[in-house]
Recover the amino acids of this structure.
């Protein structure tokens, strides 16, 4: 999700030119991606501008998460830390990218400016949630295969695997003593 989100638009920013021209539907549209921005002014050609390529750390986070997933299959004790580190790194990069959208609305005071999240940003957020879930699952202790077989579970333990010992209560009525001779 994060890799795909790095190549889709992250934010769409629309700003009206003025109250008179608002009725003419004249507005500037800026489409922000992880690699730059494009500016669309009605009646003019679309202008592209490169920016700081935040797509590079996004793809680096994806590479760390993939490496952690592969390592978790081969060596679970070491792979879980790589997955957790990749999830934290991905979350940091996505928060940094998200601050760019907040910066657009703060820079102009929010007047005549409409900042919306585009599909790329939603994919980045979903990717971070999935990476966090993978990190939690990777850090959970593994199951022991011996408890899967009931015969092995009951073989050498006095209590069942549920941990609750079953007690046997005495009968409700006492038995009459046996007759002992004279």
């Amino acid at each position: 999700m994060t890799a795909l989100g790095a190549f889709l638009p992250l934010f769409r920013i629309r700003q009206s030119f003025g109250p008179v021209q608002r009725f003419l539907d004249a507005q500037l549209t800026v489409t922000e991606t992880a690699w730059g921005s494009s500016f669309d002014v009605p009646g003019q050609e679309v202008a592209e501008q490169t920016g700081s390529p935040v797509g590079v750390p996004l793809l680096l986070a994806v590479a760390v998460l993939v490496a952690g997933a592969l390592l978790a299959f081969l060596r679970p004790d070491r792979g879980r830390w790589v997955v957790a580190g990749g999830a934290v790194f991905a979350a940091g990069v996505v928060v940094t990218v998200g601050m760019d959208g907040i910066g657009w609305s703060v820079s102009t005071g929010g007047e005549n400016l409409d900042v919306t999240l585009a599909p790329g940003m939603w994919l980045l957020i979903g990717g971070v949630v999935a990476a966090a879930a993978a990190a939690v699952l990777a850090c959970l202790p593994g199951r022991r295969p011996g408890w899967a077989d009931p015969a092995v579970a009951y073989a050498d333990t006095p209590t069942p695997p549920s941990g609750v010992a079953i007690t046997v209560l005495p009968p409700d009525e006492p038995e009459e003593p046996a007759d002992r001779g004279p």
User: Anything to note?
Assistant: The beta strands are 11-16, 27-32, 36-40, 47-50, 113-117. The radius of gyration is 31 Å.
